[in-house]
Write a structure and sequence with these properties.
Elements (H helix, E strand, L loop, with lengths): L16 E5 L1 H8 L6 H13 L3 E6 L1 H5 L4 H6 L4 H11 L5 E4 L3 H16 L7 H13 L3 E3 L9 H4 L3 E2 L10
Parallel strand pairs: 1-2, 1-4, 2-3, 4-5
Helix pairs in contact: 1-2, 6-7
């Protein structure tokens, strides 16, 4: 399910909160990376329990996650792995996609230019599309395992962190 041009507001419903994930978070999950996959699964559980809380990512993530580590290592594509990847994308209760559009393209370029002016040019164009998509959506946080993203927090005013589990509610 792709998000509309901008998330719907009002209509008597509580405001949705969006957690934006960079591609490498999905890759870590699909590859069952030690120390990461369990945290990601816990976040999935949290997302599924809260009606107005979603994981979002750009539609470009679909093309960035072309295979899992086992396939790359053995240079053999496995249909069951592609089905597992697609199964993740098809879970609209968990993940919503943001379509790449002209507005996001201009935002990505602006972030790139502002980053370069401040000496922050270590990311690739697709990384800037992720940052711009999160900003465009108004995400509450960006999750990534790429530590190069952190220096861009001040440019987009969205916290950028590794995926983490929120502490349990006391009441």
């Amino acid at each position: 399910m792709n998000l509309p041009k901008k998330p719907l507001e009002g209509h008597g419903m509580p405001e949705a909160r969006f957690l934006y994930w960079d591609t490498n978070v999905f890759v870590a999950y699909l590859n069952n990376e030690a120390g990461r996959a369990l945290i990601i699964e816990s976040i999935f559980d949290e997302i599924l329990k809260e009606k107005n809380f979603k994981i979002t990512t750009s539609t470009i993530t679909i093309s960035e996650v072309a295979w899992v580590a086992q396939e790359k290592l053995k240079r053999t594509l496995l249909p069951q792995e592609e089905a597992r990847i697609d199964g993740l994308w098809e879970n609209s209760a968990l993940i919503e996609f943001i379509d790449f559009n002209e507005e996001i393209a201009y935002q990505a370029r602006t972030i790139m230019r502002n980053g370069m002016a401040r000496g922050l040019s270590r990311l690739k164009p697709l990384d800037f599309i992720h940052l711009a998509s999160a900003e465009w959506l108004g995400a509450i946080e960006i999750n990534t395992y790429d530590n190069k993203f952190a220096s861009f927090t001040n440019l987009i005013n969205i916290p950028i962190k590794e995926p983490h589990i929120n502490q349990a509610k006391l009441f």
